[in-house]
Amino acid sequence: MRLSKLAPILAAAVFLAAFTTIAATPVAASENEEPVGNLAELMRAILFPNSNFLFDVQTTDPGAPPEAGSEDDRSASSLFSGIYTGWKVPQQAALALAEVEPLIMNAERKCENGKDAPVANEDYQKWAKQLTDVAKRIYAAAHEEDQEKVSDLTNELAGACEDCHAVYRKYQDRCRR
Ligand code: HEC
């Protein structure tokens, strides 16, 4: 009697455990979430340029007036690329990094060598979150227009990139532990 009463509870527990596992692993990509590029391309397109905008804050005050005369030598394309200037540059860069985690974690993402990106690995997940965390703090500091704070946080940002790269961006057996 006792056992049969327990059975549905056990079944529910097993069901919940299974459900928790599903929830913890990355959700399957719907059609419009299908990755366009591999992980290296994503890094080059979003993480590399945007982190460089932030590293620039260490040496250049985004609040400083633009250098005199620079407007004259702008080509049409650099005119467009220069529409958002000053503190908007690091604010936008931090935003891009703060929101990139779902793209890094996309379950369908491949690495350049054709292997699956290690999205199921806990350390990889932890380091992707670490990147989001520091990028959010940089976003806040960039809105405070605090050059020193942003500069200090870029050291943590570099650390967030490094931690994951040390394990997964190796020359041999890349994207595997
Ligand atoms: C969660 C893990 C992780 C984080 C965080 C991470 N990367 Fe990467 N990165 C990788 C992996 C894995 C590769 C190798 C990808 C491949 O070979 O497809 C890589 C490759 C790269 C590449 C090389 C692309 C090439 O030309 O081969 C660059 C550049 C890069 N990352 C920049 C960054 C920057 C900048 C940051 C921090 C702002 C960062 N990454 C954060 C995992 C990460």
Description:
The chain is built from seven helices and no strands. The protein is mostly helical and 177 residues long. α2 (39-55) runs antiparallel to α4, α4 (88-98) runs antiparallel to α6 and α6 packs antiparallel against α7. Helix content is 59%, strand content 0%. It has helices at residues 2-24, 39-55, 76-81, 88-98, 101-104, 122-143, 147-168. The model has no long low-confidence stretch (mean pLDDT 86). Bound molecules: heme C.
Radius of gyration: 22 Å
Order of helices and strands: HHHHHHH
User: What are the low-pLDDT stretches, counting only 5+ consecutive residues below 50?
Assistant: none
Q: Please give the largest β-sheet.
A: none
Shape from CA axes?
globular
Give me the count of strands.
0
What ligands does this structure carry?
A: heme C
Helical content band: 55-70%
What's the CATH topology label?
Four Helix Bundle (Hemerythrin (Met), subunit A)
Proportion of residues in β-strands: under 5%
The CATH architecture designation is Up-down Bundle
In the residues, how many domains can be counted?
A: 1
**Overall pLDDT, averaged?**
86
